[in-house]
Amino acid sequence: MMDQPVAQSTRDEFRRVPNDGLRDGALIRSARAQGHVVRLAHAMSSDFGVPGLMPYVLPLLERGWSVTLISPPGRHTGAAIARGVRWRPLGLTRSIDPLRDLAGTAQLVSYLLKDRYDILHTHNVKVGLIARVVGSLARVPVVVHSAHGLIWSLETPKPKRSVHVLLERLASLGVDAVLVQSLEDRRCIVETHILPPEKVVLIGNGVDLRRFDPDRVGVLVREATRRALGVRADEILVMAAGRLLREKGCDELIDAIARARMHDRRVRLALAGPLDVERGEASLIPTAKLERARADGVLVLGQRDDMPELYAASDIVVLASWREGLPRVLLEAAAMGKPLVATDVRGCREVVRTRDSGLLVPPRNAAALAEAILSLAANAAERERIAAHNRAEARARFDLEAVVARVFQVYERGLMRAGIDS
After folding, report:
1. What is the pLDDT of residues 9-51, one digit of tens each?
2. Structural domains in the chain (count)
3. Looking at the structure, do residues 161 and 176 belong to the same domain, yes or no?
């Protein structure tokens, strides 16, 4: 393993991860007791997803599995190493660079041939395509891919959709399963005949309901957090969390808040999330626009590790994305008992299914977004009604431990087919 510095805030974030996802007659038995250490590798194009991956990793480490992260370096790799994860640097990133991609592919091939993993679990679009093919050619016994929100749909124009379908079919020839978060993504894959239905597994998405619990955070923390942010008691705080990218709807959201404040000056916006500079200038929110937003009272908070407290401080949570899988921010906000405003796109509409959960608006429509925000800002009783519904809904539908167990079932079935003791 390669040593990397560990950020204390990230280490603390991992300590909050639930480690008992295999409780009650665990599906996957102790590898040491069976005399074989199962070797699992996760291949990713960025370390952004590492914190979200840890609930799926820590229980397996505790049961004696060897887990390797194959990814570019980043702020989260050191914290993963500190918890016992092996790390292999990868030159494949999300951007297209033929020479670097060729070198990164060769790098990945060398790891697979040398380390002889039992399971290769791939993530993200480009790395997912390449690693699935390489994993199959390298005869990794079990190859699993997670589709964290397809970048195409059945509504995508046919020429563009056909390219995506062809690439997915080729990449999926040797896979045991593709894991999807939303029903609509599963439908896309099945109806375009990328894989047979039995290989497309709906796992959903979930959150740690112990961490995202409004009763644990409490009213006093809400008030203290609002004071620390400089938000008055009478203001309506709208929270948005995620990478500050155009495809996350940040442009439209900033414009919507400006429109809303022309009618109700109590409305404030807080943006929590990093600038994803890897995506390139065209994907980022212009610095000048962020500065103008700040001047009008928008709170640009950057990367935060205190999301339960920030949700508690908010009155409405908004996600204005152009596309999603099953967005964790909406699940976290629902668990914290917050009314939601989201775009009417795949994933979002599986969380905001009715007006009992919140309001859906067309994507890329600042006017509609402003209208929805104003509607909820003006009606405290409606916000309270939706909040109670969402808290109950989260407990019933979005428990992370259930999602983790579904993924482990996929591993178990794959290992059984390959004749490997788990």
Report:
1. 333 433 444 433 333 334 444 444 456 899 999 999 988 889 9
2. 2
3. yes
